[in-house]
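FAQ: What does a ligand-bound record look like?

Like this one, built around fe (ii) ion:
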Amino acid sequence: MAVEYITSRNMISLIYETMRVMNVGAAHHGVRVGYIMAKLLETRGTYEKYEIADFMILAMLHDIGAFKTDDVRKQLTYEAKRTLPHSIYGYLFLKYLAPFGERSKMILYHHMDYTKTKDLDYRYRFELELLKIAEMMDIWYKAFDEKFEYSMINRYSGTKFDPEAVAVLGQTIERDDFFEKIKNNTFGDEVDEYEDYVLLSDEEKEKYLKMLMYFTGLKDESMVAETISVISVSRELVRKLGLNESDKNEIYYAALLHDIGMLAIPAQLLNAPRNLNEEEKNLIKTHVEIMEKMLEGKISDSIIRIAASHHERFDGSGYPRGLKASSMSNKDAILQISEYVVNALREKPYRMAHTKNEVTDDLNNGIITGRYDAIVADIFMKHFDDIMEIAEDKADMALVMYQKLLRNYKQVYNSLV
Ligand SMILES: [Fe+2]
Ligand SMILES: [Fe+2]
Ligand SMILES: [Fe+2]
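The answer part, i.e. the structure of the complex:
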């Protein structure tokens, strides 16, 4: 169903945009490594364009684990000194939460020397060797600038790097001035062209959209649990209110993406165990407009509108626009109430969880003052326990998934050190 709301090309630019919001430097590095990877595969000559495009996307995300395991701004630490954590986490993240299948394993080995990878019984071993070169080339090229030359990579042929892959780099340099293009940032057109060859299935788009939501978990896993609860509450409300299929889908995607703007907010503010000052509160509030800008022109407007009104209130007291009932619909009301109840009922580092009574009182007051849509709020209160039980189960499942990921992380770590 995601197919009607976003094109393949826009999906890729949304992934890039989301990474950019998380960290500009890391996003640029990712896109350059993706570009170099594409050029190397092109030189090799045995890949179809759509295959090259797929590897380019994976390469763009190769350091995604660093957002969890390291301070992503300290690139030299995780790319040179302590390379295992982000490689393992990135591999597991992409394996479970993105549509890369077996190719995600390339990320696990992307800092491992050729002497260790050469005998791997792995379908994408050669592509992995190219990815390693693409990654190192970008790092060294940036570090050494004018002084960077092919011989620096070639020196490690047979030790760090696969001789065959090094040869591919040599041929690429000969046939194209791609060093120059990277240096002057003029490779965008070529990346664009490859993006034209990305053809995602409905299932892949769906998985990528979810992956963007899981990006928030790289910062704070409880954000994922919360979003999953919000999706669940809104889904139950949609069902009870008998909305049609298209409304249901719009609300689902709006719920899925409503807080991805939080990726731009410093993590220490999100869960600060204290009351925030005005300035800090206002900074957090910008997450709505940031999300809107990220999604604008990429995903259907109707979804953006619902997502953007999740902190609006029917009496005009919400943000960012202070919209009133007359310019909102029951779809907006569903997300607003779902988001409010899930948040209120959860314990936060800066306050206790609100009780069922407190939430019900607030909703009832809100109906009287016009803050909440009466029909949606009533339906929720009528089925309070049932709806929240399902939502909590769903959130627990997300946390169990993270525990599994952590166990897996430790297993892989121990097997590699
Ligand atoms: Fe990297
Ligand atoms: Fe890396
Ligand atoms: Fe929010």
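Follow-up question: can I read anything off the structure? Yes, for example: The chain has a mean pLDDT of 95.
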